[in-house]
Amino acid sequence: MALVKDINCRAAVRLIGDYLEGRLSRRDRRRLERHLASCDACSAYLEQMRATIALTGQVGPEDLSEQALEDLMDVFDRFRREGDAGEEGA
Amino acid sequence: MDDEELLRRFLGGDRDAFRTLVQRYQTVLIQIARYYVNSTATAEDVAQDTWIAVLKGAERFEGRASFKTWLFRIVANRARSTGTREKRQIPVDPTDPVAGDRFNVEGMWKEAPTSFADLLADAQANAELAHAVRRAIADLPELQRSVVTLRDVEGLSTSEVASLLDLSEANARVVLHRGRAHIRETVERVAKGDR
């Protein structure tokens, strides 16, 4: 087995972003996973990041203001009326 | 009801289906457009024009991508052609996602990160957390907010996000991780009871 150089916590944390996206090189992934196996603090950090991503996914998009929604509904209604008028005229 | 069914219904004249899609996507459309144009008012116009193009059949959904990816591409293309904004300089150097003073001189944590497990198990804390996360997203710099929203809220792939925002995939990942790290800090403050 090739020698895997140990990394410190600061270096491990730098790798975690690409690790979460599945974009680490094999070498870096092995270095990180080896570090995580013996470091509770970095494992906790990784769990924090996973929880953060999950929480962000649960939040959903910002609410649209009632006025903005009504403006778009007016566009829809206008479009439908014009479409109907066009069909009647045809 | 899924997006494709809602699209089919609203093209058939169903007002409620249109309302649902607008509620689901209008703020994201504005956010994508805002990335390319100079003002929120222009971004709102581009988003509105996107719906009109869909209504008129000028843009047809052929099911090659998901509805939302298709819709986001339309708004990005329209905003790009409207956009007057100068090309942004995207910093490519990954900054440390965690403040340097949390590590000692050997690069080890001075104090281990707080577990979120208790917080996540507590429904009341969860409501507070949802509010804090929403606020943290809103407070992100614009590019980070767009990337995090598209990747983690809307669930697009990093490559789709990069393509919508004219970024390289590597840059999109750097920006994504910065945004996520900011939100993590907010959650950690809530976890520590430091609001």
List keywords for this structure.
heterodimer, A: 90 residues, mainly alpha, 2 domains, 4 helices, B: 195 residues, Rna Polymerase Sigma Factor, Chain: A, Arc Repressor Mutant, subunit A
Walk me through the structure:
The complex is a heterodimer of chains A (90) and B (195). Chain A folds into two domains: 1-59, no CATH class; 64-90. In chain A, 77% of the residues lie in helices and 0% in strands. Chain A contains four helices and no strands. Chain A starts with 8 loop residues before the first helix and ends with a helix. Chain B has 195 residues and is mainly α. Chain B has nine helices and no strands. Chain B has helices at 3-11, 15-36, 40-56, 67-82, 117-121, 123-139, 142-153, 158-164, 169-191. In chain B, helix 2 crosses helix 3 (40-56) and helix 3 crosses helix 4. The mean pLDDT of chain B is 87. At the A-B interface, helix 1, helix 3 and helix 4 of A face helix 2, helix 3, helix 6, helix 7 and helix 9 of B.
Set out the fold topology.
The complex is a heterodimer of chains A (about 90) and B (about 200).
Chain A: H1 9-20, H2 26-38, H3 40-59, H4 66-89
Chain B: H1 3-11, H2 15-36, H3 40-56, H4 67-82, H5 117-121, H6 123-139, H7 142-153, H8 158-164, H9 169-191
Helix pairs in contact in B: 1-2, 2-3, 2-4, 2-7, 3-4, 6-9, 7-9, 8-9
Distance between the termini of chain B: 37 Å
Number of helices of chain A: 4
Q: Could you give the order of the helices and strands of chain A?
A: HHHH
User: What structural category do the secondary elements of chain A indicate?
Assistant: mainly alpha
* Main beta sheet of chain A: none
User: Class of the largest domain in chain B in CATH?
Assistant: Mainly Alpha
- Counting DSSP H or I runs of 4 or more residues, the number of helices of chain B is 9
The number of E-state strands of chain B comes to 0
- What is the CATH architecture annotation of the largest domain in chain B? Orthogonal Bundle
CA-atom Rg of chain B in angstroms: 19 Å
